[in-house]
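Quick one, T. Sequence first:
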Amino acid sequence: MCPTFGPLVVSSIMNLAAPHLAILSPAEGGVLAVLAGTDRPLSGREVARIGGQPKSTVARVLQRLVEHGVVDAREAGAGAALLYVLNREHLAAESLEALVTLRRRLIERLAGDLATWSVPPHHASLFGSTARGDGSTHSDIDLFLVRPVGVAADDPRWREQLDRLAARVERWTGNHASVAEVSLDDVARLARERPPVVTELTRDAITLLGPPTRQVFEGAVT
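Structure tokens:
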């Protein structure tokens, strides 16, 4: 008799602050993220400084990655420290690079989607933990959108665009999309009252479409 199983439950929520943790150790992922972000050869000290990791830990990781051929070590000169660069010809390099740059790819995909809207927002930005890069698997993808002049909150075209984007974000990442959308009048009120979310937006938000977030709020009070 064949065994009977219950329904398959799949947890697909992503830690966009450090998506590599699903496969790599924090140290390996951190080193690879630094090297994937540049074509310039870096010393071990530079990798440690940029990645915010102990030099001894980075040295061990770099040695292991060099042994596997994922990273190239180059002599900078007699007596100089070795320089390291991601070996992008390695068969694993493309997959590793894609893994450690997922947050950047999400930002690019969001901006690309917003650019196709038939009713484009006056402003759109990513904020919260995903923008700061300090979230977890339980973090929402926080989006802030300002409706253009003449578009009501219940405009069917506007609502359809918002709902579609929220659904796409969840399909892309597994994380819930939390969309805060306001009118220009609301922006002016928020700029006057300065609740904590305005400080967060002007400090951390990544602009996806339209003027920068700080400019949006500064312009609302002039």
